[in-house]
């Protein structure tokens, strides 16, 4: 029978909200969110029939954004889709799991290094009137520094996926991240928004 489905497709990019075109927002929603939904709906009859597993690739970035809000948006949305699906599938014996990796940019190559020059050239005249090249370069340098800190142990995420598919009692969520990343998620989930905003604003200022 058909046992497991892993929704892993995803794309990422860098840019503040006004820097990105509507076409780019639509593309990201289509791949990162609607792509997983389309695939899930196509295989749902078989998964119900064989009481299988559905695994979704989310990210800790679903909890906060640091220069890639467009990616965070899609991951937050897929989390809510999974929450609804997990509850609905219980009566059929189908289990739904979410994988929440931390920074594995160096393992997956999902996000190439950012070029400030390319970003600047793609900005609308309205955005160029608000920002300057120095600001764009600072943000690009910041984001590239995050990418360079990414873990190269991609097997940790694969292990979580395998456990989600084969464990007799899989977790609803597998957070595969460094301690400091887990702490950031903890602060975001339990503290008032103003606290998280202050933490992230401080990080951006550095």
Automatic annotation (TrEMBL):
Domain of life: Eukaryota
InterPro entries linked to this entry: NAD(P)-bd_dom_sf (IPR036291), SDR_fam (IPR002347)
The keyword Membrane belongs to this UniProt entry's keyword annotation: yes
Keywords for the protein's UniProt record, in alphabetical order: Membrane, Transmembrane, Transmembrane helix
Chain segments annotated as transmembrane: 54-71, 183-204
Pfam families: adh_short
Keyword hit for Translocase: no
Coiled coil: none
Protein family membership: Belongs to the short-chain dehydrogenases/reductases (SDR) family.
Protein's UniProt name: BDH protein
Species for this entry: Eurypyga helias (Sunbittern)
Lineage: Eukaryota, Metazoa, Chordata, Craniata, Vertebrata
């Amino acid at each position: 029978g058909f046992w497991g489905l892993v929704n892993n497709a995803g794309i990422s990019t860098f840019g503040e909200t006004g820097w990105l075109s509507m076409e780019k927002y639509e593309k990201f929603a289509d791949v990162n969110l609607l792509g997983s939904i389309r695939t899930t709906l196509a295989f749902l009859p078989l998964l119900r029939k064989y009481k299988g597993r559905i695994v979704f690739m989310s990210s800790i970035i679903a909890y906060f954004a640091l220069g890639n809000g467009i990616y965070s948006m899609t991951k937050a949305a897929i989390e809510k889709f999974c929450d609804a699906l997990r509850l609905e599938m219980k009566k059929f014996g189908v289990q739904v799991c979410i994988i929440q990796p931390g920074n594995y940019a160096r393992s997956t190559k999902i996000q190439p290094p950012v070029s400030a020059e390319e970003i600047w050239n793609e900005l609308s005249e309205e955005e160029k009137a608000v920002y300057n090249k120095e600001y764009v370069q600072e943000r690009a340098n910041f984001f590239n520094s995050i990418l360079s800190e990414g873990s190269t142990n991609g097997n940790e995420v694969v292990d979580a996926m395998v456990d989600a598919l084969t464990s007799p009692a899989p977790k609803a969520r597998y957070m595969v991240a460094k301690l400091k990343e887990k702490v950031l998620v903890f602060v975001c989930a339990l503290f008032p928004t103003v606290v998280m905003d202050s933490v992230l604003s401080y990080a951006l200022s550095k």
